[in-house]
Amino acid sequence: MHRIKGLWVRLRALLFREAVEEELDDEIRFHLEMATEKLIHTDLSPEEARRRALLDFGGVERFKEKTRDERGLPLVEEVVRNLRVGLRRLASNPLHALAIIGTLALGIAANSAIFSVVDAVMLRPSPFPDPERLVMLWETDRASGTSHEPASWPDIVDFQERTRALSAVGSMRGGTPTVTEGDTPERVTGLVVTPGLLEVLGVEALEGRLFSPDEGRTLGVGMLLSGSP
Amino acid sequence: MVQSNADVLQGTLDMLILKTLLPEPMHGWGVSQRIQSISKDVLRVNQGSLYPALHRLEGRGWITSEWGKSKQNRRAKFYRLTDRGRRQLGTEEECWRRFSIAVNLVMAAD
Which of A12, A37, A72 is where one domain is finished? Predict the structure, then answer.
């Protein structure tokens, strides 16, 4: 039980330093008074007695300073001190510091980039409904052997009409049509899609409607579907 | 340790304080006076050593303190030995005994 009280005494010295110091002052004052009185009884003048007693004072100030030093958060102060030492060392050897910082920067950048890609491709859930049922088809040119070739329009039509493995087939390619509003033409980026593809992908119209099946029958029909501004 | 105003070694001082508090609780001044008188003025404990020692002993739970009134009705902090302190005193006494015997042996050898 007294061990706990001992702990409390030490903690108190750390947290309530002023109060503890005041108490110590009171304690010392009593001691000093008693010492002075004792010397007075030996025929010394009160001033001389007090002076002698004070001489005996010794290292109480040192003790107070010691408790002062032990106060505060030694861990935080030590961390700060180590930081300062580290910064000083770096500053004294700038080339070395540059090499270290450069290596760290490259490493961090590479890691961030890799993670961003992995996150977008693998870790995040696919924004499309039923992503396990969504496939992307490419063609292989038997003559040259190149794979990942885009399909020609007749092939797409064949796929759409004849496939039994897929519930819906659409195609898309990138395009940069020019939009003219009034007098100002503007180059925009977009996708050229077959009607039905957007529904398959779960895209909903914010305003108006998406393409109807008829509108994709002849190539070259220009319909506009704006993305959100 | 024959000089007056000598600073007693820390560990030994702890033991002396514990021993002095064995019979009854005392304030710091009382402890220093008792040690001085019993040792026939040889051991004079300086305030600079005494109060740090008292606080250290209290921190270890060997003594406990409370404020009270001195014989002259002045406010003073009284220290009292705890059970753990009593046990610690026994341990230190034993260590000291062995130490002093050893020193004497060396000094007595030719």
Answer: A72
